[in-house]
Amino acid sequence: MAKPVSIEVWNPNGKYRVVSTKPMPGTRWINLLVEQDCRVEICTQKKTILSVEDIIALIGDKCDGVIGQLTEDWGETLFSALSKAGGKAFSNMAVGYNNVDVDAANKHGVAVGNTPGVLTETTAELAASLSLAAARRIVEADEFMRAGLYDGWLPNLFVGNLLKGQTVGVIGAGRIGSAYARMMVEGFKMNLIYYDLYQSTRLEKFVTAYGEFLKANGEKPVTWKRASTMDEVLQQADVISLHPVLDKTTYHLVNKETLAQMKKEAILINCSRGPVIDEVALVEHLKHNPMFRVGLDVFEDEPYMKPGLADLKNAIVVPHIASASKWTREGMATLAALNVLGKIKGYPVWSDPNRVEPFLNENAPPPAASPSIVNSKALGLPVSKL
Ligand SMILES: NC(=O)C1=CN([C@@H]2O[C@H](COP(=O)(O)OP(=O)(O)OC[C@H]3O[C@@H](n4cnc5c(N)ncnc54)[C@H](O)[C@@H]3O)[C@@H](O)[C@H]2O)C=CC1
Ligand SMILES: O=C(O)C(=O)CO
Question: Which positions fall inside the D-isomer specific 2-hydroxyacid dehydrogenase NAD-binding domain (predicted)?
Answer without folding.
Answer: 130-322
